[in-house]
Design brief:
There is one protein chain. The N and C termini lie close together (7 Å). It is globular and about 70 Å long. The protein is 75% helix and 0% strand. It contains 20 helices and no strands.
C-alpha cells in the first residue's frame, strides 16, 4: 500500500497545484490554530511535573497521592480518546474542537483555583476528558484541510514537531512559571491560549457536517475505555505497590478481559467505536505500535532526567526546564527540516527506522551517566540524538497512520494515534519508574555498609536505578525500529497510484 494512494484527495479534487489553488486560502493560519491547541494538550501532560513539589506542599498531599496529579490526566486522556474521536465524527470536527477547547479552559481554571487535593485531581481528570475531545478533532481537521501531498508533508512536519516536543516545552514553561510566579499558573496559562484558539477556530477553520446517521457504540465505549483505564491504572499502581500486588494483577486481568471483549464486540457492533479495518491495515497498525513503543522510552527519559537534573545535579526548576531545550530543538529540526522534506521521496520506514536507531543511541549514551556527569559533555549529546531520532519518527507516523481513511473514520483514526501516544507514555512512566526504583533500592542495600556511607551511596544508587531503566528504554526503542521496519511497508507518494485515485478505508493488503 502506498502513501500516494492514501494521501490523495477524493475524485472531486485535483492533486498538486490545482488542489492548492482551490484549497482554503486560510488553511495555513488554520494550521496555527490547530497546532496551538495540540501544543496545549501535549505540554499539559508534563507542565505540572516541575511544579508538583510546590503543589504538594500547598495542598498538603501525601506522597502516595501526589501521583494522581499526573495520572488523573493521562488516565482520562488515554481512556477516553477513542470516544472523543467518534464524537468528532458524529457531531463534526470543528464543533468538537471548540467544545474541547472551552472545556479544557474551564477545567484548567478550576485546577488553578483548587483549594484541596481532591479538587485538583478532579480538575486534572476533567482536563484529560476534554483533551480527549480536542486532540483527535485537531488531527482530523488537519487531515481534511491539507490534501495536496506536498502541503500535507509540510503541515504534518509542523504538527509532528509540536506533538513530539510539546512534552519538553512543558518542562520549560513549568519551570519558568513555578520559579517566577506560582505553581497555579501552570494551569491558569491554558485559559488565554484556549481563548485565542477558540476565536481562531471560529474565524479560520472549515469543516463538513457530522455524520448524524451513525450511532454511538455505547457497549464499545464501556469495554474499550474501561479496558484502557484498567490497564493504565494498573501500570500506575505497579510503581508504589509492586507488580505482584493483588490489586495490580486484578487490574491487568480486568483490563485484558475488557479489551478482549471490546475486540469481540467491534466485529459485531452495527456502528463500531473502532472499525477494525483501521487496525487491520498493516501500515496503520505498524504506526500505532511504533508510536506506543517510542513514547514508552521518551516519557521515561523525561521523568528520570527531571529528577537527575534537580535532585542529583541541583538544578533550579528553570535551569532544569531549559536543559530540555536542545531536545526540543532537535525534535523540531528532525521533523520539519528532514522528515517533511524527505517523506515525499522515500518510504516512511526509511525515516522511522533510522529515527528509532538514533533515539536508542542517545539513550545508550545516557546509561553511562554518573553522579558527577557533565551536562555539556555527556547529557547534551544524548539529548540531541534522542530529539533528532524522535523528530524523524513522529512526522511519518502521524502522516502515514491518518492517510487514506474515509472522512467519517478520520476522527477515530486520529484518536487511535493519540491513544497510542498517551498509553505508551503512561506505561513508560510506570514501567521504567518501577525498574529504576527496584534497581536503585537493591544497589543501596548491597553497598550501604554504615550510616557514614549514606551521603555517597544513596545518590549513586539512585543514578544506578536510572541507568538500568534507560537500558530498558533503549531496548524498547530498538523494538520500535524493528516494528516499523517490518510492518510499515508503504511507499513514497511519488511511487504511488495516480493522483485521482479515490480515498478508501478498505484494507488493500
Amino acid at each position: 500500500m502506498s502513501i500516494g494512494r492514501k494521501g490523495d484527495p477524493p475524485p472531486t479534487e485535483a492533486a498538486g497545484p490545482a488542489a492548492a489553488e482551490g484549497a482554503d486560502p486560510h488553511r495555513w493560519w488554520g494550521l496555527v490554530v490547530i497546532a496551538l491547541a495540540q501544543l496545549m494538550v501535549v505540554l499539559d501532560a508534563t507542565i505540572v511535573n516541575i511544579a508538583l513539589p510546590s503543589a504538594q506542599r500547598a495542598l498538603h498531599m501525601s506522597d502516595g497521592n501526589r501521583q494522581w496529579v499526573i495520572t488523573a490526566y493521562t488516565l482520562a486522556f488515554g481512556g477516553l480518546l477513542l470516544l472523543g474521536g467518534r464524537i468528532a465524527d458524529l457531531v463534526g470536527r470543528k464543533r468538537t474542537f471548540v467544545i474541547g477547547l472551552a472545556g479544557f479552559a474551564v477545567a484548567s481554571a478550576l485546577g488553578g483555583a483548587a483549594t484541596g487535593s481532591g479538587m485538583l485531581f478532579g480538575a486534572r481528570a476533567l482536563q484529560g476528558a476534554f483533551a480527549a475531545l480536542l486532540a483527535p478533532s485537531a488531527l482530523s481537521l488537519l487531515t481534511t484541510t491539507f490534501t495536496d501531498p506536498r502541503e500535507r508533508g509540510k503541515a504534518f512536519g509542523i504538527y509532528g514537531a509540536l506533538a513530539g516536543s510539546g512534552s519538553a516545552i512543558g518542562f520549560i514553561v513549568g519551570g519558568l512559571l513555578t520559579e517566577y510566579l506560582n505553581w497555579r499558573w501552570c494551569l491558569y496559562v491554558n485559559v488565554p491560549i484556549a481563548v485565542v484558539a477558540v476565536l481562531g477556530a471560529f474565524a479560520l477553520l472549515r469543516d463538513r457536517p457530522g455524520h448524524r446517521e451513525a450511532r454511538l457504540d455505547v457497549p464499545g465505549v464501556l469495554l474499550g475505555c474501561g479496558g484502557l483505564v484498567a490497564v493504565v491504572y494498573g501500570f500506575s499502581e505497579a510503581q508504589p505497590r509492586g507488580w505482584t500486588d493483588p490489586l495490580v494483577l486484578a487490574l491487568f486481568a480486568t483490563g485484558a478481559a475488557l479489551l478482549a471483549g471490546f475486540v469481540w464486540w467491534q466485529n459485531r457492533a452495527p456502528s463500531p467505536l473502532l472499525p477494525l479495518h483501521i487496525v487491520r491495515d498493516r501500515d496503520r497498525a505498524g504506526c500505532f505500535l511504533t508510536m506506543m513503543l517510542a513514547t514508552i522510552g521518551m516519557f521515561g527519559l523525561f521523568l528520570f532526567m527531571t529528577y537527575y537534573l534537580q535532585v542529583i545535579l541541583g538544578y533550579s526548576p528553570v535551569r532544569a526546564g531549559l536543559a530540555f531545550l536542545p531536545l526540543t530543538a532537535a525534535i523540531i529540526t528532525g521533523s520539519t527540516q528532514i522528515s517533511a522534506r524527505l517523506l515525499h521521496h522515500v518510504p516512511p520506514r526509511l525515516l522511522m527506522v533510522p529515527g528509532m536507531l538514533l533515539a536508542a543511541s542517545g539513550l545508550l549514551l545516557l546509561t553511562r551517566m554518573t553522579v558527577g556527569s557533565s551536562y555539556t559533555g555527556e547529557i547534551l549529546p544524548a539529548l540531541l540524538l534522542m530529539g533528532l531520532g524522535m523528530g524523524l519518527t513522529f512526522m511519518p507516523v502521524f502522516a502515514t497512520a491518518t492517510a487514506g481513511v474515509a472522512p467519517r473514520d478520520s476522527g477515530v483514526t486520529s484518536a487511535t494515534v493519540n491513544t497510542s501516544q498517551q498509553v505508551g507514555g503512561s506505561i513508560g512512566t510506570a514501567l521504567l519508574n518501577t525498574v529504576a526504583t527496584t534497581s536503585g533500592t537493591a544497589y543501596i542495600a548491597a553497598h550501604l555498609r554504615s550510616p557514614a556511607d549514606k551521603a555517597t551511596v544513596v545518590p549513586a544508587g539512585v543514578v544506578h536505578g536510572y541507568t538500568v531503566a534507560i537500558w530498558w528504554a533503549a531496548a524498547v526503542m530498538l523494538l520500535a525500529g524493528l516494528v516499523a521496519g517490518l510492518m510499515v511497508t508503504a511507499r513514497a507518494p511519488k511511487h504511488g497510484a495516480s493522483a485521482n485515485a479515490p480515498v478508501t478505508s478498505a484494507v488493500t493488503h
